[in-house]
Write a structure and sequence with these properties.
Two copies of one chain form a homodimer.
Chain A lengths: L3 E8 L10 H16 L8 E5 L3 H5 L5 H8 L7 E5 L4 H14 L5 E9 L5 H7 L13 H16 L3 H16 L12 H6 L2 E3 L2 E2 L8 E10 H4 L8 E9 L4 H4 L7 H13 L8 E3 L7 H8 L8 H6 L16 H5 L6 H14 L12 E8 L9 E8 L1
Helix pairs in contact in A: 1-3, 4-15
């Protein structure tokens, strides 16, 4: 396998765009990435396009990526439509990475696009419940997260205030991010006083639904300088796993697919968690960011809340996490999220993150997870390590 | 890239199975392939799972493959859900091929599974129209095919009888195939007298909707002998393209994405169309098999009907096409089709095709196409060349 680098990224703002089509959202992200990479669309040899919910929400099915690329004004290349629930974007990135790293092509495009808002909000809500483990009990994701969080709170003396502090941090970051769906900084009090969704989760702790798209151009390192003079961002590891640890969790609640995904990613990149300078993690329910600190090895089990208390994961801390605002502030149009995370890390590594720029990071990480099933704790868990 | 071989295939019968779940169909195909390959499920390092219509027809969305593999009794490996309309199965096969050929893993699984029948048939029908180019005119695929066929008939003096002869041949083949959805041999008269769907297409010329699954195990050639003593079937080429020739077709009606896909496949395999001993092609509307003879280089433009007249593509001919019965007889559960084609060619090359076995073929081809959009003649076109 040869080295692959990201030479261009792009995204739309995330938000509620009832009058903008899925294809148009995709087009905007794709062309921003193309311009950022300074390539011609004809240089793109293959495309991976992630989308998850068009069947249920938009009554639209099949060859979504072909529609996006045709609308973007080009085509004729192989297009592979992928889906992995909330980890669809990272799955598309992994595909583009493998095409380039394997030598199958020099330049590959990864796109993630999702429209979750539609005129009939009931459809959007229903789409979120079809594959949760207990959906026949009326469960949504929030309930599943909530149960796990309550167990964690009890085990490690973690409080609702800790969870609210994550939102305080991320909503502040989001307020500095022009792409974010929610740009209002929230105080701990506002978070705790917002309405309860599933105890201990309050409204502002939960990612809302959203529309949006994000894209990345992956290029063989040895030809990348033909196109761009910007810093090259190497994909040092791009690992995807599915979890089967739901049963084991009954006896070892600290177990999680993410632990194994991260371990393999660190190994492939030849680094450890101590080498990570900035991270974007999957806080679809913001408190889970604290657990992810532990799963990703940023601290030991039970010590996650301390990182929040000490402000270490703020923009100004030694390990900024979710500088973009994370899923709860930036928005979470499911299949776009993994690529939006990658875009943020690329901007951070290049020093292009504007008001939310962290201090000269050299190594960044994205963690993206999706799809609970009755048997898996995650249908797909992705950890990507990016290096300047 | 290193050599990759198919060491196991499996499929369900195609048909109408209202009481069998999508997951159960997938499980059966996966385990048949596992047993055929003589591997342990733990040997499988990654899975590509194709499914297209669950969102619209089953109100089910997300991580379909995770559900199938969990139901099959295993998981924990990366699972990549892919979609490419009727070419989804070949897209999954291409993914598994790339994982193995690139050296990323030794054994990869490709699965295609589709349930098109449901209690409310209107949903099944609606799902077939969402992405045709003129769906706002009430068009279905049959109309698009019919227009192209009428042009072809006029240009080359081809008759409805020629088209019916394709069905006569393929329905006979299907009658010998225990996996086929329709196992009744049809006469030319029966085909012509069946009701008109879209002139010149009659009912028996059109693939019906269906439920089913098919799977293949792809393995690195250099370790394949650890598992199987059966003939190894090499993936000599596995090419996927998207078409943008709709505009060009106005001035050059003989142009088709398949021509370019096949050309690249022959080049990669280092052979020509004259080396193909047996083929499975995408006859969703049976008459298009005649056009595919031409696109695949089996004869010159306008000479396809002669191959039918001379019986050369019958089981007993020098170039048997669709020995399985093809899509119209075997059935066409869309995302399963590409892998069912591959299964048939593997059986043919191994001499395991029973009553429909062709004469000692050494090189086989599958052609699988899917997804019309307003801009593309095919959203995805796949040509795979398999060698004993």
């Amino acid at each position: 396998m040869r080295n692959a680098v990201i030479i261009g990224v792009g995204m739309t703002q995330f938000g509620k765009f009832l009058d903008i089509s899925l294809e148009e959202l995709g087009r905007v992200a794709v062309w921003k990435a193309i311009k950022d990479a300074n390539i011609n669309p004809k240089d793109i040899q293959i495309a991976y396009v992630a989308n998850g919910l068009s069947g249920l929400i938009l009554d639209k099915v099949g060859v979504i990526g072909q529609g996006v690329l045709a609308h973007a004004g080009f085509g004729g290349i192989p297009i592979i439509n992928v889906e992995n629930a909330c980890a669809g974007g990272s799955t598309a990135l992994r595909g583009a990475y493998l095409e380039v790293a394997s030598g199958n092509c020099n330049i590959a495009l990864a796109v993630g696009v999702e429209k979750m808002y539609c005129a009939d909000l009931a459809k959007s809500v229903a789409a979120m419940t079809t594959n949760t483990p207990y959906n026949n009990m009326g469960f949504q994701f929030s309930g599943d997260y909530a149960m796990n969080l309550r167990r964690y709170m009890k085990q490690y003396n973690v409080t609702r205030e800790h969870f609210a502090k994550v939102v305080e941090k991320n909503s502040y970051n989001g307020s500095l991010n022009p792409y974010a769906q929610h740009q209002k900084p929230l105080s701990v009090e506002e978070v705790l006083n917002s309405r309860v969704i599933a105890e201990p989760l309050t409204l502002y702790m939960c990612a809302s639904i959203g529309d949006g798209a994000a894209a990345a151009i992956v290029c063989a390192e040895d030809v990348a300088r033909r196109y761009t003079s910007k810093p090259l961002v190497e994909i040092a590891a791009c690992v995807l796993k599915s979890g089967t640890y739901r049963k084991q969790k009954e006896t070892d609640p600290d177990i999680d697919t993410c632990i194994y995904t991260a371990k393999e990613a660190y190994q492939r990149a030849g680094i450890g968690p101590e080498d990570i300078d900035v991270a974007e993690v999957h806080d679809a329910m913001a408190p889970s960011e604290i657990l992810l600190y532990e799963y990703l090895g940023f601290c030991k089990p039970g010590e996650g809340a301390r990182l929040i208390d000490e402000g270490r994961t703020k923009l100004t801390g030694d390990l900024p996490v979710n500088p973009s605002g994370g899923l709860a502030a930036k928005g979470h149009p499911v299949s776009a999220t993994g690529l939006a995370q990658a875009a943020e890390i690329v901007w951070q590594l290049r020093g292009e993150a504007g008001k939310r720029q962290t201090k000269n990071p050299k190594v960044g990480l994205t963690e993206n997870a999706g799809g609970l099933t009755q048997f898996d704790d995650y249908g797909a868990n992705s950890v990507v390590i990016l290096k300047k």
